[in-house]
C-alpha cells in the first residue's frame, strides 16, 4: 500500500513544506552512519553496544533502500521502496517469528533502540506491512534511514537498520527509478467492513476543542462500547486508533493512509505523544479494524481545533504574542 502524503489541499502542503524547511534547517544534519553508498544495512550497521528490544533478529538480516542511493537527487514527491533480506514483513501487532515492519526516519538520529519508535513527522510508521511509500519533502538536503520494528514498534535485537543516506530534493528533478513491477495479480475482492456496535464512540480525553497545547502534546484517546485491539488482530467489536491532523476524512471503505497527516497507533495505544508545528491545527480520531479499514458504520470523533504555542498556554495578547 502506498502512503500518500500529498493527498490534501496544495495550500496546506506548501505550508507544511515551508514549516519543515525552517524546522529541519535550524539544526545541523546528523552525521551519516556507516555502511557506504546505498549498501545493505542490518547487524553490521549497528555497533556491538547497540541492543534492541526483546524480539530477536536472525543472523544476516538486512534492510535497505531499493533504487535510492546516497547522494541521490530527487523531486519533492517521490516513492521510497524498502528492501528486506533474511526476514519477512508482517503488520504491526502480528507476533510472527523473524518478521517486522518498516519505519522511515527523516532528518533525525536513531531513537533509543530498546523502546518503541516514536510516531511523528520524522519517524514514519508503515504498520500495515507496506514495502514502499510516497513521501514529500521540502527542497534541500535530507537524511533517510530505515529501521525495522517488531509487533510493538520496538527494534529487534540486534537492530535491523539501513545505513543513513543523504538525498537532495530539487524542484523538477526526475523521478526515482521504480522497483521492478510484480506480475499483474487478479483483482482482489472488496473487503467486507467489520460492523461497529450501536452507540460506539471515540473521543478526545485530552485535549479538548479550542485548547492551547505545546509542540509535543500527549493526545489521549477515549472509546465507548468497543474494545481496543492491535492492528493485525481480528476480534469482534474492537479496533485501533488513527489520528488525523489537518486533513478531511479519507475514504471510509479503504485502508487509512499512513503519512504525516494520518498517524497510526497499531499497537493498541490509548495515548500518544505527537509533534505539531506552531499555529492552529485540526485533529480527529478515526477507529479502524485489523487492516486499518474503518468500521461500518465508521467510528470517528468530532473534529477539534487546537492552537500550538511555545509555552503551551494561551498567549497574553493574540496580536502581540502570537504563538508564544
From TrEMBL:
Per the record, the domain of life is Bacteria
- Annotated region Disordered: the residues are 30-56
Q: Which InterPro entries match?
A: DUF4399 (IPR025512)
From the record, what ranges are coiled-coil? none
Range of residues in the leader sequence: 1-31
The UniProt keywords, alphabetically, are:
Signal
* Protein name listed in UniProt: DUF4399 domain-containing protein
Species assigned in the record: Rhodoplanes tepidamans (Rhodoplanes cryptolactis)
